[in-house]
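Lecture notes, structural biology module. Today: joint structure prediction for complexes of two components.
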Amino acid sequence: MLSNYAFIGLFAIVAVIFPFAGFAVSYLVRPKRPDPVKEDVYECGLKTIGETWVQFKVQYYLYALIFVIFDVMSVFLFPWAVAYHALGLYALVEMFFFLGILAGGLIYAWRKGALRWV
Amino acid sequence: MAFVSDLFVNSWNWIAVQLARFLPPWAAELVMMFAGVVVLIAFLLFMVMLLTLLERKVVARIADRIGPNRVGPFGILQPLADTLKLIIKENTEPAQADHWVFRLAPAVAVTAALMPYAVIPLGRGMVGTDINVGVLYVVSISSLTVIAILMAGWGGCNKYSLLGGMRAVAQMFSFEVPLALCLASVVLLTGSLSLVSITEAQRELWLVLVQPVGFLLYLLCGIAEANRSPFDIPEAESELVAGYHTEYSGVRFAFFFMAEYINMFTVSAMATIMFLGGWRGPFVDQLPVLSVVYFLLKVHFLVFLMFWFRATFPRLRIDQLLSLSWKVLLPIALANLMLTALADKVAHRAGLSRMASAGLLLGSNLVLAGVAIATLYLVYERRRAPSLSRRYEIHWH
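The predicted structure, tokenised, for the full assembly:
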């Protein structure tokens, strides 16, 4: 068990080092000639107008909120699904209630227009 | 002959035995682990190179072109030339960029793309490590890609990048929910989260035959998760220059590219393991060396489907994309999970044989598909009807 996670740890270390090794190799061989024109932001070749980091559309935030609910749901679902054969009829009914409440929430959000892109 | 029949595993064990002769056991184990990691990552690099070439060849053929054919015979050395070119290219960086976020984003993308392969079984006995929460691990690690893309979108100080990054986040988490639900119904049927046990559970019957709707949903969501066309709005060339990687060049761009292809391979590999029986196939028990061949064939079939989609389907708009996920795929995935649970319980209670219960599951799945298609058709007709009659009124009066 522990050696399983040791392997994942080792894999993680190598996977983190790997891109930096790539950067290092490229750093040694690539040219470095900075130039004001090269350091410009590329937006179709014209000078950019206005700030980039401004307030953003609220829809992204609404979708994110709904997502959090359903993501927590899937966290609850996996243990239930693994143990499903060992559980009785009660677990099925229980999960139907749970999913029913969530589906109700989805329908509510839908009717409220939270899923509409304006 | 016995050695050759399971060539890769046997040679691996042979090396381990040789190492154990002159190293203390813990050192031998550590060296073998490290070798495993290196082999897996090298395999992935090779696959990325192969996929870039295959994609260009396949899409070219579909568009009635020839594709790369200048570097090496049939252009097979083209990926090497591309790699070399990207490594020796200058890395430009906008002066106003958020420099560290900008520089770290490609590294995060590659790390997140590589990590799932610690648990994905590529053949019989050929798996980095078999942990008992494999499915959960792969789902959670691959969602880290979102962070890399948002970092890239934010860091570049470019409006197109930021827009691409925001779109990527909205898209990837929207499609993650139905994807997790599809995986949950597979987990429910196999009763395990370990990818090796899920493959073993499909000894008699591939799950795609029991869960065709789940498979299709998974494939759609997977393509969206990998940001592949027709769901590639985060990097829509026709509207956002290149989306979140507009400002990247050289090796940093190469890493984003690599991460995208690895993610594509991961999605196909997971679909293969969860629905197409992983490395299982005819004669695999007598000749285990075939297992990796079967696995790669199935994965490449799915990858080919993705290339095909890219060559033939137009790109969706962001509102269409999010509607598709929340209003179509999510309800179907929820209904699929509930029906699967119900049918499985009924089959269990009634004490049906394996084949009969598989038939029941398949039947309920097909009914679901029929209801879903009928509903979609009715909604579409109702939406279309007013505009049509209005057109007639204008025409007649």
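Point to remember: Chain B has a mean pLDDT of 85.
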